[in-house]
Amino acid sequence: MFHSKFSQNLKFNTQMKNIFKNSFALLIALLVFGCHKIEVPVNTQLTPDIFPQTAAQFVQASGPPYAALRGNFSLDYWFIQTLTTDEAILPARGGNWYDNRGYIDMHYHSWTKDHGATGSCWNWLSTVIGTTNQALSILETTIPESTTTKSQNLSELKMVRAFAYFMMMDLYGNVPIYDKYGDFTPKANSTRAEVFKFVESEIKAAIPNLSSDVNVATYGRFTKWGAYALLAKMYLNAEVYTGTAMNKECIDACDAVINSAKFGVESSANYLKMFYPDNGPQMKEFIFAIPYDPAATAMSGTNGFMYHSRYDVPRSMRTRYNLPFTPSAPRSTLPEFYAYFNDPNDIRNQQWLTGKQFLADGKTPLTVTTTKKGYDQFYTGADGNASVTYQVELTPEIKLRQDVTTFDLGNDEIAWNMGYRNIKFYPDATSTSRNQNNDIPVFRYSDIILMKAEATLRSGGSAQTATSLVNQVRSNRTTSAALTNVTLEDIYQERSREFTMETWHRNDMIRFGKYENSWGFKKDTDKNKRIFPIPTGALVLNPALKQNPGY
């Protein structure tokens, strides 16, 4: 039986937090990915005479790549994967959250090569790749050949790099491949198909060496099953990445995870708990997760923040969740996306805040006292300063009441209550800052099941098999009747409900041909927007790079 994360002294995020305090810590000089000339000395305390000899010591010494991976995953990467879809929108309110058009451009698909999140994600993933390359260059020579876990240890780090390249390929398409530390050659972009082949080969080479264990010691680290999950995700999207469908290969990768019998679909009673602040290795769906801990040290050049409550909980509901800070709550969903949550018997509805709000007892109305103009800034009566108390009610529509150009809803109570809010990553009242303890699942077992169902239909396989797989997930989410004949559209909607706010919706929209549709205020239909531009900074550092089409 697993203990709460707060008592797990072996939990991986704690190991990463301590990595920089350990006498074996790597003193990483970060290699900036795509640079054509940087003099970066290899500074390290790791020498053969002091190198750790045990598997546990190696985990500590190889922590920096994982610390780098945690970096911006739940902030910049979350923004660029989510706010560019119909899943979420972050408008300004009275000038707040305008942020130099950062969120407007993501919604309208009007970003440029100078867009902030485009640059920060490139730099973050470059840091992951550079940090891993350096760690591998050191550890390949300093781990004694007699160490029985050497192949496993190195393959695990190569999986971190493979995952980073997968994200680079997914976001930017054509990127240069650097797999050796100290290589400062200005390399041109490899094609997306070439990057795909590189990542595929790295994963396949790693799988035989990776651990097949699923326990506290392997939590937050790449195992054999995390590698198969990444392969399945690549193969499901292979037609997007390479022009050639690989659905049979996707099914085979999914079957490897399924046949391991090491995972299962969480029950309806546990669905919401998978995303609580005390989630962790006890969740039987988690194949690979990124641990978060407000006390953990962030890798230099990254932020390490897990800020969902800050962005999602209405500021009026601070007391409802007993938060030690006042949330900003600028982020909500769109009516088009919320329409998928149309089954009143589905547990996944409970991840949303909608309509009239109450205190923690569920009975006492949550009220706010303000003035008539504070409630509605466009109120024209002479008694605008008169006091008014109202029950907080979240409304579904997003209306640019103050200014369309600046994407502004207004700076009153009506504006701040616009949009249904998602609290899947449940507010963490234990943290003394805005940073949360909730770990982020990257690959879950229900994703394996739904990917297999989709690949089965796309490859002309049995509709009965696909229907059975989808119902395997649904039977643990709703008491409504099982589906009888699943279509691809059914799977798309099921994925929208199941993986809300887990960074996969952009990926799904592109694969299903929906990314060029209109939603909210967005009308752009340019297919070039399926990948982001290479940032200006990267182009300056590496003149061999060529900009992506359409930018």
From TrEMBL:
Q: Which residues form the SusD-like N-terminal domain?
A: 95-236
Q: Which part of the chain is the RagB/SusD domain? A: 410-551
The terms describing its cellular component in GO are: cell outer membrane
Primary location: membrane
Q: Name one Pfam family in it.
A: SusD_RagB
Q: Where in the cell is it found?
A: Cell outer membrane
Protein keywords: Cell outer membrane, Membrane, Signal
| Family, per entry | Belongs to the SusD family.
Designated name of the protein: RagB/SusD family nutrient uptake outer membrane protein
What organism is this sequence from? Answer: Emticicia aquatilis
